[in-house]
Amino acid sequence: MKRIFAAIAAILCLCLVLTGCSKAYVPNASPVADYEGRADSNYSLKPNGATATSAPSEAVSDGDSVFASRKVIRNAELTVQTLEFDDFMNGMLGKVNELGGYVERNSTGQRGTVNNRPLRFANVVVRIPADKLDGFLAEVDGLGNVTEKNEAVDDVTDRYTDTEARLASLRTEYDALLGLLAQADKLETIITLQDRLTDVRYEIESYEARLRSYDSLIAFSKVTMSVSEVVRETPVEEESFSQEVSRRFRESMEDVGEGFTDFAKWFLGDLPHIVLVLAFLAIPVAIVLACTRKSRRRRRALRKAEKERKAERQDNGSEG
After folding, report:
1. Contact, 115 vs 109, CB < 8 A?
2. Which portions of the chain are predicted below pLDDT 50?
3. Per-residue model confidence as pLDDT tens digits over 108-157
4. What separation in angstroms does the CA of 126 have from each of 7, 94, 99?
5. What is the three-class DSSP state of 98?
6. Quick one: which of 25, 3, 317 has its CA closest to 171?
7. Domains of the chain
8. Which is nearest to 214 in space by CA: 265, 261, 162, 156?
9. CA distances from 28 to 125, 261, 302 (A)
10. Can you give the pLDDT at residue 294?
11. What pLDDT sits at residue 52?
12. Strands, sheet with 72-82, edge to edge from the N-terminal-most edge strand
């Protein structure tokens, strides 16, 4: 029994030593065999669980070697205007497929109408290989009017290295436990070692899943886009005084022309209704006008009769 406790104590001491040395782990060390003896140095995943072709450490920005030795997660957010919604969406999604990316979310809807033209919007989240992110952003800028762009870089090198070191320690402990289990000859010792092996195996799988998650985020950058269909794009470059005046004048003339066009469309399109309404309104108006004329004729007749009576009385008075 003392030998069993001594063996377990030795294993625990070994774990403490390996954990204490985890900070000194070299990130570019050669791959470590996993607990089943397989070399496992790349946890990058493509969509649908396929392994990525390039290692995460190679996921660097176009022409930017500062990320070559770091583990970085690059994401971008774009606000885009477009005059031709279908053309932009087809071109953008086609570029995603061309670069080996995929669509994580795509929702579209209608946000109103202008000049009887429905205006649509889309909220899109795509994943692009990190080494092609800058090229994709440039393509989007060429397809539409990017009014706002935000990029974020999350350096996870330290967290990634710590996770790798902890995983290496657990694998070493797992191998040591397997060696003790092979030599154990008592049921109590076997049960104790198997329980610890189960715990260590669970921790190993947890850390491996964390590394796979890191590698997926590193290898594929997330681009979130808010796309709006507009009838007039917002200038994104600073304009001179004459350019701004010219643009505003042109836009005002376009608004006036669109106003006349809308009025003509409404008037001609609703002309039958307008005629019908005017016909119904004309009946009471005609009645009112007829009554007014009749009243005026009556008043004129009364005034004329009154004048004739006055004239008659005056003639009678002069004769007397």
Report:
1. no
2. 1-2, 4-5, 16-63, 239, 241, 243-244, 247, 249
3. 998 877 767 789 999 999 999 999 999 999 999 999 999 999 999 999 99
4. 53, 12, 11
5. helix
6. 25
7. 2-44+158-215 (no CATH), 56-156+221-229 (3.30.70)
8. 156
9. 32, 68, 118
10. 77
11. 34
12. 102-114, 117-129, 220-229, 72-82, 145-155
Element (H, E) at 157: helix 157-183
Quote the Cα angle for 26-31-33, to 5°: 125
In the numeric block, which tokens belong to residue 106? 């795509």
Distances (CA, A) of 146 to 80, 167, 237, 278, 295: 4, 43, 11, 50, 72
| Predicted local confidence at residue 176, as pLDDT | 94
216 within 8 A of 113, measured Cβ to Cβ: no
Helix (H) or strand (E) holding 241: helix 241-269
Position 27: which residue type? P
Quick one: three-class SS letters along 7-26?
HHHHHHHHHHHHHHCHHHCC
pLDDT the model gives residue 274:
76
Among positive and negative, which fits the CA dihedral 62, 65, 69, 75? negative
- DSSP state string for 10-72: HHHHHHHHHHHTGGG--TTPPPPB-TTS-B-----B-GGGPBPSS-GGG--BTTBGGGTTS-E
- β 145-155/220-229 pair status: unpaired
Give the tokens for residue 165: 């070191």
